[in-house]
Amino acid sequence: MLHRQRDRALVPYMAATVLSVETFLLVILTVVASPFTLYPAALTPTNGVGLNPLLRDPGMMAHPPFLLAGFASFTVPFGFAMAALITGRLGSDWIRAIRRWALVSWGILGVGLLLGAWWAYHVLGWGGYWGWDPVENVALLPWLTATAFIHSVIVQERRGMLKVWNMSLVVASFILSVFGTFTVRSGLISSVHSFAVSPLGPWFLGYLSLVIIITVGLVVYRIPGLQSDRAIESVVSRESGFLVNNLLFTALAFVTFWGTVFPLVSELFRDTKLTVGPPFYDQVNGPILLALLVLMGIGPLLAWRKSSPRLLLKNLFWPVMAGLIVIPPLLYFLRAPIPVIALAVTVFGLGTVVLEYVRGARVRRRNTGEGYPRAVVMLVRKNGRRYGGYIVHIAMALLAFGIIGSHFFQVERQFTLNPGETATIRGYTLTYQGLDNRMTVEGQVIGAKLAVAKNGVHRGDLESYRFFYRNYENQPTARMGIKSVGLDDVYVVLDQWDTTGNSQTVSLRVFINPLVNWIWLGGVVYVFGMLTLLWPAPAPARQRAMSPVREAVLREA
């Protein structure tokens, strides 16, 4: 057991909690819905129909395992939280025990979400990567609460504060993981991700209710022991910044949760299922996400206990200037104030991260004589928890750039073309070269071949296909033609085609998606930041040797 020696008093209760979760799942597998149940003899099919065509994609080899591993691994932090509640050991021991576990769970689930977005973009054929679908939402919820916890736990470690918040966020992350499983398996909420419905819904609902009753009861019972050791001394402090961070992430999770369950609530009370679409989430969650980007730019510059307003304004000068400088050219080229503001705020947040690296590298160079590149590398190596977190902030900024660009500046057009004809969209010229119609081992493939040019310069070719898999002939599966040109993705969907006689007429939906690749780049940086956060700290002797540099950096911060 990883923490057996260090957390001897907590481990038995943690293990009992984890085993109780495993017992429930084993009962489900062996009694309720055994995967080895045989078909009745009269209903046994002579041959299987194969995997659903939408799932025949490399992304599906990783996306579900990462999501489920993220959900499942939240059991360990939940187990330690329950151990702390049961034993009354509500100090920092249980926090130290689960910090790495929480990072692992949060990181794996985040990778699963990104892989799901990548799969949706390449397979579903609607030109996007995130549609606020109920199953997408329930997978996002525990990641949001875990993100809040990973930030909030720093305050309890440093200042003995936000104990109720930390306990509640850990418990909520596990409960929302169970809720996500219940939502997917119950079939109560319709989703493009629902590929099968099972009788497990009532079982998970009962288990979810039991967990909520027990955990809420324990948290309420232990409220006196969860009081903060200190009060927040100033609104302008790092403690206040983390509290605002908790409020924003909780608000984001609540809005997403409410939008997901609202169709069920409306059907229950009004006998009419009202759907909640992407516009609701964009209008409500958009300002919250913008506020988080602002906080990402301010938070690292706040001091513990109380910040000097004069010093804070001085530290904010360069990040604010970076955000302001980009506004005029962005307004000139984009002529859209809302996305320009969002992009400027993202630049502001990114500017703070760059400032922190520059200041840290400058201090290290002054103390060690190293060059700036090596100083930056050594900052990350020696203080991975701090600078690994900044790497994740860089990833979030890249994701924000990609989301803003693709959301506000996507262009969609419909074209009907014959071989040799061209379509023009936002400076791109697509020349239709012909239809590819062939049989493969798995079924029929029909694809449109196109040449892509930008401002008269040939930039490559793409092919957009429809697959008719055997046993799924009535469910043609799209494979989008995607060509990255500069900051844009040229994204082509084959909608209709005519193969009668010598005709090769096709109907195409063409999207120009700006900055989408920045989302995938942000995902790579996110993984690097997560690994940096998880990398073991240096040996104590080396930590002591580095302490003057680290203290100097902290003083300048």
TrEMBL record:
Domain Cytochrome c-type biogenesis protein CcmF C-terminal stretches: 210-531
UniProt keyword list: Cell inner membrane, Cell membrane, Cytochrome c-type biogenesis, Membrane, Transmembrane, Transmembrane helix
GO CC terms of this entry: plasma membrane
Example GO BP: cytochrome complex assembly
Topology relative to the membrane: Multi-pass membrane protein
Annotated ranges, domain Cytochrome c assembly protein: 25-187
MF-aspect GO terms: heme binding; heme transmembrane transporter activity
Chief localisation class: membrane
Localization of this protein: Cell inner membrane
InterPro entries: CcmF_C, Cyt_c_assembly, Cyt_c_biogenesis, Cyt_c_biogenesis_CcmF
Residues that span the membrane, as ranges: 12-33, 66-88, 100-120, 140-157, 164-184, 204-221, 242-264, 284-304, 316-334, 340-358, 387-409, 518-537
Keyword 4Fe-4S: no
Family per record: Belongs to the CcmF/CycK/Ccl1/NrfE/CcsA family.
Function: Required for the biogenesis of c-type cytochromes. Possible subunit of a heme lyase.
Name by which UniProt lists this protein: Cytochrome c assembly protein
Organism expressing this protein natively: Nitrolancea hollandica Lb
